[in-house]
Design goal:
By secondary structure, the chain is α/β, with parallel strands linked by helices. Helix content is 51%, strand content 14%. It contains nine helices and seven strands; from the N terminus they run E-H-E-H-H-H-E-H-H-E-H-H-E-E-E-H. The chain has helices spanning 17-30, 47-57, 68-81, 83-91, 102-110, 115-132, 148-156, 176-192, 210-223, and strands spanning 5-11, 35-39, 95-99, 140-145, 196-200, 202-203, 206-207. The protein has a five-stranded parallel β-sheet, sandwiched between helices. Strands 6-7 form a two-stranded antiparallel ribbon. The longest helix is centred in the middle third of the chain and has 18 residues, at 115-132. The two termini are 16 Å apart.
Length: 227
Amino acid sequence: MANGKFIVIDGTDGSGKATQIELLTQALKKQKLKFETIDFPRYEENIYGRLAGRYLKGEFGGVNEVSPYLAALTYAGDRNLAKILIEKWLTEGKVVISNRYVPSSKAHMAAKLKPKDRDNFWQWLDELEYKTNKIPKENFVIFLYVDPQVAQKNVDAKSKRGYVGGKKRDIHEANIEHLIKSSKLYLKQAIQNKNWHVIYCMKQGQLRSREDIQQEIQVILKTKGII
């Protein structure tokens, strides 16, 4: 759309997505580039976001008790409501940075399924999001990878989040098997899509500094002509 660019920053839970987006926006301000940011799910902004929060809190059952197709509808509905806003920003030539997007649903929802059923789910979700709802397609995805066991500990260090009702972890974050499966499905998407880049946020068993990771993000985006 026009000259706008749509960037998705995604990652394993506890990988520091919000921190990296904040650092990136600071860099864009210095470059005097027009940009907007958006976070998904939007837990408090609409009926779909609130429903996603209730799902993650465990109100409808455990992580493997809720159909991935039904759960995916809540996230898709939230993104669909944001479609007009994102399209507006892109037609204005802005860089749009999204914290999570469709790839997140692909990873977390397909992790509930048997391997033989995952490709069909991905095809269904692509049809729902991009063809039926016609939400904007992302130009580039940066995936922040942190070992799931380390990421789970990082989640525990976060401040309280309203949507989980005071708990430290939502039903995805509390299930290490789910986190391992979903992280592998993120990496599978990266292999299948040329517009993805994986940043490994750990080195020799330790987390890299946020500044080091941010530098890599900016180099990637500049090389790709995104910023």
